[in-house]
Design goal:
Number of strands of chain A: 5
CATH class of the domain at 99-175 in chain A: Alpha Beta
Number of domains of chain B: 2
CATH class of the largest domain in chain B: Alpha Beta
Order of helices and strands of chain A: EEEHEEH
Order of helices and strands of chain B: EEHHEHEHEEEHHEEHHEHEHH
Number of helices of chain A: 2
Strand order of the largest sheet of chain B: 7-6-5-10-11
Shape of chain A: elongated
Largest interface: A-B, 31 and 40 residues
Strand order of the largest sheet of chain A: 1-3-5-4-2
Structural class of chain A: alpha+beta
Oligomer: heterodimer
Strand content of chain B: 15-25%
Number of helices of chain B: 11
Helix content of chain A: 10-25%
Largest sheet of chain B: 5 strands, mixed
Chain lengths: 189, 354
């Protein structure tokens, strides 16, 4: 388990390989995610045994772009141009333990990362009651912090988040492959 | 002008399919839409290449969402290819904002948002119920009907007034389609092609009317008590030979449909309406249409109804509603594009009607 105050470290968990939208079974999600952390504990930890599997789809070769890092590869260091997506999690009350899960997703371009962020952000806003989602961008790396008190809710939300990211990436790969390496894709309404 | 409609199939709740809606030349596209609708009827036994689900099960949100994710991109590509369109031909992206099951709705919305950004097109979140209404009005030509919206997930009597589709009456618990579907499970009636259809066929062979609770509460109806009652008595009566499964199907239909006819008539009397329109999957039922027709004739009113291509959830209905919204200037900002499981019919400002 990774402590929240130590920050996300290297990628963990997951299988290498290529996936398709048709793959069923374990959650698909991006490589480079870490396990849940306890906000009030200082212990370092490996990736949680129960952490979702890494995304196979995001490790698929991207036309015109680089593959996302395989499990074990160090996540990108923070770059300038950070953008914060969502509201900060509220301070926990006395005696209430907060669980946190960090996702760091590396995209070929900052624009692709932003498309993915904007595709998921509305859903994150709706989840604020049970699970708080905070998006941040560091260049082409999208960082997501999920915070909850209920581990079951957190797990559900993490799985859902990974699946949705994978879906967004698949759309980008399928319909506008060049945009994956574009610097400025079009913006929707 | 083409409206890309992303409306996705959430089995048993509402149907969403990607389709394109060209208001000028819709014949070829319509054939495409019809083929999608007919090839994939509402039924948990149809999941493409995946394993067949149990024939007597309902629809689970997680399974449904997984199915959507598995097929959505191929379907979208197929729609583009068959329509002979590219992203540049598309004017906006419409998707189902709600109501319905959360997980499938979210999957659809993610795709819609991503596509809207990639293609730089405006986004339109459409209310599923209004999709039914607008499709019904388009197909039948009804001008200002009192609408009976009946499906597996919704049961409402609706009339338009001052830029809102007002809910005059509705179920206070489960939808009529849900009642029928769950009763089908009690009798182990197949879901193929749909439990409601099979109940309808069995009901035609019923001869005995079993008295069931009749629960109309003012303008509203209740079906959960009827379901509990019939679940309780069905096995006993079948074992003792008091009635046949066909009798039970017949009795259930006669009872629940009579309730729906009553509240629809009451709404028509209140509004002074001379038109009634049936929409929603249960609207395919010919016995319901027959009973509604009788009521309308007695009132000197006119009944409008469609066949299974348009009654059952389909992508074109979202396209139609989205088209009306688009022309009226509606746009859904990304920040407001979240899905709503309980999206009320009367929450939408219907600015495209006088």
């Amino acid at each position: 388990m990774q402590a929240a105050d130590q920050g996300p470290g290297g990628a963990a968990g997951g299988d290498e390989g290529h996936g398709t939208p048709g793959d069923s079974g374990g959650p698909d999600g991006p490589a480079g995610h870490e396990g849940a952390g306890r906000g009030d504990e200082g212990e370092a930890g490996a990736a949680a045994c129960g952490a979702p599997q890494a995304a196979q789809a995001l490790q698929a070769p991207i036309p015109g772009g680089n593959t996302v890092p395989a499990p074990g590869e160090q996540a990108a260091s923070e770059q300038s141009g950070e953008r914060s997506g969502e509201a900060e999690p509220t301070a926990r009350g006395p005696g209430r333990e907060q669980l946190q899960y960090f996702l760091r997703l590396r995209f070929p371009t900052p624009a692709a990362a932003d498309v993915a962020r904007r595709s998921l952000a509305p859903h994150g806003q709706q989840q604020q009651e049970a699970v708080r989602m905070q998006f941040r961008m560091f260049g082409n790396v999208l960082s997501v912090r999920l915070t909850a008190e209920d581990p079951v809710q957190l797990e559900i939300c993490v799985n859902s988040c990974i699946e949705q990211f994978a879906l967004s990436v698949w759309v980008m790969q399928r319909f506008v492959p060049s945009s994956y390496s574009m610097s400025n894709p079009g913006r929707g309404a | 002008m083409y409206l890309l409609l992303l409306a996705w199939l959430a089995l048993g709740s509402h149907c969403h399919w990607p389709c394109f809606w060209d208001m000028e030349v819709c014949t070829a596209i319509w054939r495409h839409l019809c083929s999608l609708g007919i090839c994939h009827p509402v039924g948990c036994a149809v999941f493409g290449a995946g394993p067949l689900l149990g024939l007597y099960e309902g629809f689970l949100p997680g399974d449904t969402a997984r199915h959507h994710r598995a097929v959505i991109l191929d379907l979208l590509q197929e729609a583009l290819t068959e329509a002979g369109l590219t992203s540049q031909d598309i004017d906006c992206i419409a998707y189902t904002k709600g109501p319905g099951m959360g997980a499938p709705l979210v999957s659809v919305a993610v795709v819609a948002r991503t596509v809207a950004q990639l293609w730089n097109k405006p986004l339109l979140g459409v209310n599923h119920c209004i999709g039914h209404i607008e499709m019904g009005r388009l197909i039948t030509g009804a001008t200002n009907p009192t609408v009976l919206y009946v499906s597996g997930g919704n049961t409402q009597v609706i009339a338009y007034s001052e830029h809102r589709y007002r809910i005059f009456g509705e179920t206070i618990d489960i939808a009529v389609g849900n009642c029928l579907d769950r009763f089908a499970r009690v009798l182990k009636i197949s879901n193929d092609p749909s439990p409601g259809y099979n109940i309808e066929q069995m009901a035609k062979r019923g001869k005995k009317l079993v008295e069931l609770p009749y629960t109309v509460k003012g303008m509203d109806v209740s079906f959960s008590g009827i379901l509990s009652f019939i679940e309780d008595v069905a096995q006993r009566m079948l074992v003792t030979g008091e009635c046949t499964p066909e009798d039970l199907c017949f009795s259930l239909q006669e009872t629940v449909f009579a309730m729906l006819v009553e509240i629809t008539e009451r709404a028509m009397a209140h509004c002074g309406s001379q038109e009634a329109l049936i929409v929603g999957g249960v609207g395919c039922n010919m016995r319901l249409q027959e009973m509604m027709e009788t009521m309308c004739q007695e009132r000197g009113a006119r009944l409008f109804a469609t066949d299974e291509r348009f009654c059952i959830d389909n992508g074109a209905m979202i396209a139609q509603a989205g088209w009306e919204m688009f022309r009226a200037g509606h746009r859904t900002p990304l920040s407001d594009s979240g899905v709503t499981q309980r999206y009320r019919t009367d929450e939408v400002e219907v600015t495209w009607r006088d």
